[in-house]
Design goal:
alpha/beta; about 30% helix; 6-stranded parallel sheet; binds 1,4-dihydronicotinamide adenine dinucleotide
Amino acid sequence: MIKVAFFDTHVYDKNAFEKYNDNTEISIDFYETKLNKNTVDLARNHDAVCVFVNDTLDKEVIDKLYENGVKMIALRCAGYNNVDLKRAFGKLHVLHVPAYSPYAVAEHAMALLLTSTRRIHKAYIRTKDFNFSLDGLTGFNLHSKTVGVVGTGKIGRIFIDICNGFGMNVIAYDKYPIPNSDINYVSLDELFKESDIISLHCPLTDETKHMINEESINKMKKGVVIINTSRGALVDALALLNGIKDRKVGAACLDVYEEEGDVFFKDYSGHIIDDDLLARLISMPNVIVTSHQAFLTNEALDNIASTTISNIKSFFNDNKSSVNELCYRCGKTDTCMKKRQEKCF
Ligand code: NAI
């Protein structure tokens, strides 16, 4: 039987994964705590750990998991910026869920944009209180506005389709543009200068960290709307706050935040939030924050659970590599085992 230590468990995770917890082929121990150096010992006597975006898989945790006999890390998400893949190489195999519902995230990005531009969040609160005044609720049409999409992968492309449906003028930047596509690619600088709305759909890497910063905000149009449903650290939150205070940034729609690991996914109502930057951003009338919720649809949760379980089973039962295995040298070396359909090490 494969024993799995499941970290950062929430009710919706348990609902989606419990049906696979049959105690014959797979046995899952659900832990509410996140995985980090203080909790890593919970993984002792398990074959795999199942983790999410805010679990910590740095050198120390990876070494400890390895010492404890854990053989694989099953990420129940697409992004893997929280895993030190280089350190894991030769010790722990890392598998992820590359796509579970790009529609969920792209639709959430548009939901945030519409909420912001049409002041739905304000109107909802007003009418709940029988306040039917329209003052301060004036929005703007999306039709004919220029939207700049950074990252034209699975989610970015669906977001582009949605924007096209609204009659928007779509421009895009990707480090690896799709050849012969009908996407109107421009340079990143041009995208910053031309866009009324900017939506981020690229991964977090050393290169993309703080791509929205004081310098890039200075290049943008006055009133620009910035949407981030990718990873918090793509945006320098202090620079964003300053851009909002300077009236340069017209609105921000954030599903992710650089320091979200300390607060997101928990109920802190009734508590005093220590993160002044987050508190100040949330206090702004033109900032909408959702707590890394873009993926959260029934369809996505079902896909996450079935792919994660299939990753775990195939890793322990098959000798072949999995297309969902991640390796820091994937495809980059002549000795890449995946090319030979073998496990990475
Ligand atoms: P993907 O891998 O299909 O697409 C990413 C795109 O970014 C690729 O086209 C790639 O060429 C491009 N890219 C790579 N480096 C770049 C750079 N330096 N500058 C510009 N573009 C660059 O990934 P997918 O599925 O579209 O996801 C995008 C991001 O969305 C993920 O990296 C993840 O961080 C985030 N995400 C957020 C979720 C949420 O709940 N908020 C859920 C799922 C993903």
